[in-house]
Write the structure tokens for this entry.
Amino acid sequence: MHAWPASEVPALPGKGRDLQIHDTATDGLVTLDPGPVARIYVCGITPYDATHIGHAATYNAFDLVQRVWLDTKRQVHYVQNVTDVDDPLLERALRDNVDWVALAEKETALFREDMTALRMLPPQHYIGAVEAIPGIVPLVERLRDAGAAYELEGDIYFSVESDPNFGSVSNLDTAAMRLLSAERGGDPDRPGKKNPLDPMLWMAAREGEPSWDGGSLGRGRPGWHIECVAIALDHLGMGFDVQGGGSDLAFPHHEMGASHAQVLTGEFPMAKAYVHAGMVALHGEKMSKSKGNLVFVSTLRREGVDPAAIRLALLAHHYRADWEWTDQVLEDALARVDRWRAAVSRPDGPPAEPLVEEIRAALANDLDAPAALAAVDRWAALQQERGGTDEGAPGVVSRAVDALLGVAL
Ligand code: 5CA
Ligand code: ZN
């Protein structure tokens, strides 16, 4: 499917630094050394209630990763999926008595609008689960033929015991994995499974639900984890630089995906870094579609909130932190946009180059956007209090804020 238009990324004087980022698998910072083309896969939305501030915060983190890479004069190959068929989408369509295809299309269209307004860089490949089915079926067949998958009443399950590295992404004990599996789309209590954690690869057609030709698998639809593996391997191959998502994807989604890929290719790991963003809450609870405690980007936009302020509200929190959306967060961001705009709207000002280096250093250090914002705040305050004589400095600052933070002043 088509993604959304790219906003221009201004070129800056000098060159950015290599990105050091937290990897969930090793629970430490890794310095990534991508080749001339950095490769990133970011898990996309399940399109039934998009785009809430939690989604936006997660995509903001991975947009920053790309902006750091682009600033090191690399190209970026970015792939994102859309889980346009899955249980929660079908359940919502049934609840609201709407066609599931129409629901997915509507929410995906809204997501594109929100991403465009927030100046998130688009993926080169934006792939729906449905369109990926022809690539998913042969992978499931291969896993089954290799003895890594088995059938249970027509459904096909992946055997986690077939992967010697199972557990290496999330590093959780069995009890924790079992709990999260039940919470996040798994079915640990289904009788007949070899291991309660085994995830579904292919679900046999159910009465009243959409299904596709699965060749030797029979009619059905794909499981969630194999969807992302098929799309990532097809467009990026093994050993890409970053797989990204919110922290609720570390287990089971990224763990299972890593296992599928390992058994399929015999290679390890699928991604050099597994990077996870913190969860955004509202009224003390994680913003989630199932709970319904959501603030939508599109609602804010309709109310006339400047997308640049929404983006600054996201950037004011470290991507790995869990944080809470409040009116105050938005007010602070609105005030910050005003201060920054006033500061760059003069022909001269304090020197820009040291600030550009500060922003670069902050982002290269595990995407420390709050530190980058603080540096711009200091420059803007200096401009406000004393001004400066460097001709063109405000223009450089404005371009740096755009190129590195995705905020158009
Ligand atoms: N389609 C799958 C991924 S393949 C999925 O998880 N979709 S989603 O719509 O539920 O979430 C999309 C992304 O937003 C995921 O990376 C998820 O971790 C992230 N996300 C969801 N809720 C929040 C939240 N409250 N705070 C931060 N990120 C969130
Ligand atoms: Zn995914």
Summary: Residues 43, 81, 228, 253 surround zinc ion (ligand 2) (CB under 6 Å). The mean pLDDT is 97. The first helix runs from residue 53 to 71. The CA atoms of residues 68 and 208 lie 47 Å apart.
